[in-house]
Amino acid sequence: MEPKLTRNGGKIAAQLMVGPEQLAHFGEAGILACLNYVLDALAPRELILSITKSSSYLARKITERCDRVGTRVSLWVMVFADRPAALSSFPNVQDAQGRTGYGATGAWENIGKGDEKFLFYCPSALGKDEKGIDSALRAAKSIGARGIFLDRIRYPSPANGLEFMSACSCPLCKEAYRAWSGEAWSDLASLFVRHAAQSVGSAQDFIENARKAFQFRSWMVNNAVTRYADAAHAEGLSVGLDLFAPALAGFVGQDYRSLSRHADFMKPMLYCKAWAPAGMPLEFFLLMKGLEESGIDAAKAVDFVSKLSGMGREYLEVVRRKGNFPASIAASELLRCKREIDPAAAPKPEIYAGIELVQHEAYDTQIDDGVRDSYLKSLSGQNIAVCWNILYVPKRHIEAIASMDTMSPHHEDSK
């Protein structure tokens, strides 16, 4: 059975995370009641499900309910970081000095403190990850899921510290880079700071000097995604991808063009307000902070990052002062995403604009009605992903999405 479309013509994806905390707080009955409400109100085309193996009975109930209304369930799979303990016996990425863990320059103050550690494993070591691929496919099929959704398909972001722009600099990765490019691996973090300190042509010079290193990182990410996708498609499973916004994707090794060839759907994280990893305000703030802590003048840091990312200086100036991006940036980044996917990809992946709508005491980000309406107004007619966990998305937000075509004009408070 095919689900109905939302009234404005766009399709909906939703994310559901079920762990010990959610089971204790909501119970199975509460989780299923929330799911039923969202299925009825939004008729999502996709449900992205993260659930512990110990809750397989509940997982099968979830997939059965989704199947009845034509919603496809994809099991959420971690690839380069935050993997299940049984799949985590790989070395961590190293910075240019051979250090693992987290950086000290411009790193997020909360990195590693929550359930998600954002400790990334060496991508070269993960080159033989048959166990992880097999585990993901078996887990998806065991609960009746129709696909897998790949997350952490990237290198460390600015939240991990500026030093880890050079990751992975372990001997295995250096050898792989030399074999691929014929050159020695360079310290990208130092190169980044050195070019930012220049004036005329600094961004373009950095792009030229770092081009092969960034291409190699994208190649490594694409290789991992290809292996997972080929195995999933061979089993009749669909593949979804969780991606940084295009303005940030290049910094973490995500190339939309190559990745789009392997995906059935893609969800760019167009989080304009979230001060958390993958949130555009936090990542851009820390990127500029890392440069400033390295001795770069604030104005030069803003200009350099603006030219590299394509993000307007006026927006970055606000973020540097701990403000947010306007919700309308989500629409421009979505258009950029569509431009960057491979036009020859067959079939073309569905693109869902991921917007953050959770309300939880552990998250600093609180999306009020005005911000929500700005998101929905700017994304009218587009596919939307309700992030990060429908258990914490207020019903008023769900109701607003369900009636997007009836929204009145709104002007977001700029701050």
Structural summary, described in words:
- By secondary structure, this protein is an alpha/beta fold.
- It contains 14 helices and nine strands.
- Strands 7-6-5-4-3-2-1-9-8 form a nine-stranded parallel sheet.
- Helix 1 links the parallel strand 1 (12-18) and strand 2.
- Helix 6 (202-234) packs across helix 10 (298-309), helix 10 crosses helix 11 (313-320) and helix 13 runs parallel beside helix 14 (395-402).
- It is globular.
- 50% of the residues are buried.
Main features:
globular; 14 helices; nine-stranded parallel beta sheet; 415 residues; 42% helix; alpha/beta; disordered C terminus
Walk across the major sheet and give the strand order.
7-6-5-4-3-2-1-9-8
The whole-number mean of residue pLDDT values reads: 93
Spatial shape: globular
| Uncertain residue ranges | 1-8, 406-415
What string, H for helix and E for strand, traces the elements in order?
EHEHEHEHHHEHHEHHHHEEHEH
